[in-house]
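pls design
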């Protein structure tokens, strides 16, 4: 069931999202080669708790405040003291905050030092995919329009669009209806309505779209070992516009 949010609920979700945007602005400049992914997670925990929130992923029994996925890891990378990051890596940070019962969700992929031209292009195109998906997210359109917009951008560059995982409703719980695939599907295709709060999140692979799950039960990697990029914003739909709640600008 799709939960349409009222004005008060959207205000609470917006506050959580603005805090998440500030978290990213605070920690991204601090992420550097030589750190472990657990070091990054520790910064995330400190920021969230200092501002009166709770890491949203704790409710999912995930061992971390941030999913931190490196290079060929698509999503759900578990923070670890043993997992170091190096110059040339690309690192996806996927973080959610529970602030007074309101949930925010956003992801960004960042370069560590100088990365390869193919990594730079993949990151740029994935941002274009996210922007296209958000532009299609407006009253009167359907959920499939978001996926079609994302897929059109990614496929024009020959990239693989992950189909095993997708975006979703968010705000009062971490994962809500509807599911938002990043490519055209024949599944449920509800019309977009005012009051929807959605997490739109393209996961774009340099190579094939297929993915695999590691033995840890969480980490998803590309089937061909090539790099992957993940970008995500939480948006709120209004009658006359769509607001990017987690915008960092």
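designed seq:
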């Amino acid at each position: 069931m799709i939960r349409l949010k009222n004005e008060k609920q959207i205000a609470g979700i917006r506050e959580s999202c603005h805090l998440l945007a500030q978290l990213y602005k605070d920690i991204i400049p601090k992420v550097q080669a030589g750190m472990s992914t657990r070091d990054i997670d520790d910064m995330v925990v400190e920021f969230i708790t200092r501002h009166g929130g709770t890491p949203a992923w704790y409710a999912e029994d995930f061992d971390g405040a941030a999913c931190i996925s490196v290079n060929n890891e698509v999503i759900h990378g578990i923070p670890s003291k043993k997992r170091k990051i190096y110059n040339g890596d690309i690192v996806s940070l996927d973080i959610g905050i529970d602030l007074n019962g309101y949930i925010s969700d956003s992801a960004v992929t960042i370069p560590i030092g100088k990365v390869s031209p193919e990594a730079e292009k993949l990151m740029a195109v994935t941002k274009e995919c996210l922007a296209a998906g958000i532009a299609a997210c407006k009253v009167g359109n359907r959920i499939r329009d978001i996926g079609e917009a994302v897929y059109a951008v990614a496929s024009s560059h020959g990239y693989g669009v992950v189909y095993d995982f997708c975006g979703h409703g968010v705000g009062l719980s971490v994962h809500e209806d509807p599911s938002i695939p990043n490519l055209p599907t024949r599944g449920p295709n509800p019309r977009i309505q005012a009051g929807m709060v959605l997490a739109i999140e393209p996961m774009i692979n340099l190579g094939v779209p297929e993915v695999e799950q590691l033995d840890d039960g969480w980490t998803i990697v590309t089937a061909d070992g090539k790099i992957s990029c993940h970008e995500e914003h939480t948006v709120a739909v209004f009658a006359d516009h769509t607001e990017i709640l987690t915008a960092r600008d």
